[in-house]
Amino acid sequence: MGVNRITAEFVYSLDSEPIRNGFVEYEDDGTIIRTGKSGPEEEVMPGAIVPGFVNAHCHVELSHLHKKFRKGTGMAGFIDQINELRDWAGFEVKQQLVREWMDKMWNDGVSAMADISNDDASFDVKKSHPMYTRTFLEVFGSEPEMCEGVMNDVRALKDLADKAGIDAAPTPHSCYTMSPQLLSASSAAGLESGYLSYHSQESQEEEDLLMSGSGAMYENRKRSGMSTPPVTGESSLKYFIDRLAAAKPAPYDENILLVHNVCLQQSDIDALRKVMNNAFFAICPLSNIFIHNALPPIGLMRENGLAIALGTDSLSSNDDLDMVKEMACLHENFPEVPMDEILTWACLNGARFLGKEDRLGSLSAGKRPGIVHVTGIDADGYVTSESKSRMII
Description:
The protein has helices at residues 74-85, 91-107, 123-128, 147-164, 180-193, 204-212, 216-223, 236-247, 266-273, 285-292, 298-303, 323-333, 339-353, and strands spanning 3-11, 19-27, 32-37, 45-51, 53-58, 110-117, 132-139, 167-172, 195-200, 255-260, 279-283, 308-310, 371-375, 388-391. By secondary structure, the chain is an alpha/beta fold. It has a domain at 53-321: Metal-dependent hydrolases (TIM Barrel).
């Protein structure tokens, strides 16, 4: 194979310090050979070279909901819109939009994705796409008597995923859309696969539901004639930990992804550390702003050394599926976070969650993570609102 060399103002390998005026050497198939400092005679192109991104939380099958939702409705209002609009498109339309948006993500530099599915509209696209995906087959069901039927349905969906040759397994959605029985049953199925994704502490409405049986989400559930989870007086994350224990005794060595984490507190972190050995924390900042104008406690998460990963969520709660825009949002709101740390969230930690860090997530020798060119960065190497990304190989 031939040896290729590319230079840039900044090279973020994520296995060492950022390199100003650096190079990346790689084989024709994209396998990294080495990185280093460019020679004084070499001309470097503007921008940064980074590894392929890992979108740690997406619902690509909801791409037919692009630009259809009102912003700032809170979680209860957002759920009402989902219920009203999610079925407007037929299977073929959904499938075509999945293909278009996965192609766009790939061209923008996304090498892998942890994706949520409620049906099989994305399966045919995923099985032939260059992007690696692990699909979490998410389930809902607020009534205890629904548990067996819902689990039978998701097992049938997993059979379709297996036939398509894609990595997939059941996973629970959240505390507020599931009976305690279904939450435990779907968690057990997810843990059996070694991977579990869970929408956790996305809004104060969710916390109010569990802690006091009050608030907009509680009223929304009651108005819809749905059962609500038991009032525990504790956070929704602690309730989830209790339901995990009903599925399988702790400790948990499986990779567990907690998604959103807007209301995460120190007591929650202390509780999960007692039982979860491989917890990851997906953040989706633009989605959180879209729905309820809030952001996760990044300072607290960094102080505790949590494994943060970055996602886009869906086009029902975001204007794009652009990882660079998510990073620019983080830099604007948390300017104290170094750029290579934000990139670690956007690349390496997602790869670690997916169990693909042996080939993805960093520009390390022997890996084939995808090589991405980011333009529109500032003089210190940070992304800006003008930044764009492109997959080179």
